[in-house]
Write a structure and sequence with these properties.
By secondary structure, this protein is mostly helical. Helix content is about 50%, strand content about 0%. Helix 2 runs parallel beside helix 16, helix 9 crosses helix 11 and helix 13 crosses helix 15. The chain is globular, with a radius of gyration of 18 Å.
């Protein structure tokens, strides 16, 4: 695969962004140790942290059933965003709220979260657990227990689905596979696990074949540049699969990445679909290039180059 090099003009443009964006770039693209204080002083980041602490939309609201995994601007995706920046639970003072998530964990390691996350719905709980793992809970015994439960729920083809059986020719659900891989890919031993090739192949084949499966397609909406890709989107598939050497060597992965790269103008990417809940951020508007989307594409590119 051709190397993707971040041009200095684009890098300089990224570093001119808000404190939280600059922090993510320095930490994840430049491998430095930036000062977190300006991030925590950012008004928009403070709003996200406050919302995560709230009883209406935050982690405490999970017990009330008021928070659904498909809703942007609430616990699942606010936490996901802060994890993507590179912030930890300790950084943002969310220890008490994060601990509340584990109240929903059963003896077998799976989670049952109101209003509709059943213990076999790993695709939903994996969103929260993958964020927590990135935010300081990576080696927490409860996360390890969840991972064991996730792996024990794999179908014969290597993927997952909420029904416990295949209803499609590709043998698993793309949303389940993407979200589970999003967590498992954070661990070196799983990045090279041949047992995950089935789930990886399903995502790659889903894109290549263009089938509508379990309610998820790979058409125009899937191909839109959008953050967060709450339902199912090309950026999140690329991001999750970029953690697996087996995936990025495939023709379908290269094709997906080329499709996204083709959307750039001067090395910058603009949102093609938005979530109004994030209108305060550059990925919440479609008029100007988004530094955040540009960062995300280049983070994927960095992983590809490294492998």
């Amino acid at each position: 695969m051709q190397a993707i090099i971040l041009e200095k003009t684009v890098l300089d443009w990224l570093l001119e962004g808000p404190a939280w964006l600059k922090y993510a770039v320095e930490l994840q693209l430049l491998n430095s140790k930036p000062d977190i204080a300006p991030v925590l002083a950012d008004t928009n980041i403070q709003k996200i942290i406050s919302r995560l602490k709230s009883a209406d939309a935050g982690l405490p609201a999970l017990k009330t059933g008021k928070v659904h995994y498909t809703e942007a601007g609430k616990a699942y995706w606010d936490l996901f965003f802060l994890a993507d920046i590179g912030l930890s639970i300790t950084d943002i003072g969310l220890q008490n709220e994060a601990e509340q998530v584990f109240r929903f964990q059963g003896a077998d390691g799976a989670f049952t979260i109101p209003p509709n996350v059943k213990d076999n719905y790993f695709c939903m709980s994996a969103i929260l657990l993958s964020s927590l793992a990135r935010m300081g809970y990576r080696d927490d015994p409860r996360v390890m227990k969840y991972i064991r439960a996730t792996l024990s729920a794999q179908m014969p083809g290597g993927g997952w689905d909420c029904y416990g059986e295949s209803i499609g020719v590709l043998e698993s659900c793309p949303m389940d596979d993407m979200n589970c891989l999003m967590l498992l890919g954070q661990y070196e031993q799983h990045r090279h696990d041949p047992g995950l090739k089935g789930a990886i192949d399903m995502l790659l084949e889903h894109f290549a074949m263009g089938e509508h499966l379990y309610g998820f397609g790979t058409g125009a909406r899937f191909r839109c540049l959008q953050y967060p890709a709450v339902k199912y989107g090309i950026l999140r598939v690329l991001d999750a699969l970029s953690l697996f050497p087996y995936a990025i060597e495939s023709h379908s992965y290269k094709e997906m990445l080329a499709l996204v790269r083709g959307k750039a103008s001067g090395g910058k990417y603009t949102a093609e679909a938005i979530e109004p809940a994030y209108s305060d951020f550059d990925f919440g508007q479609k008029k100007e290039p988004s530094r955040w989307l540009t960062f995300l594409v280049n983070r994927v590119a960095k992983r590809v180059e490294k492998i």
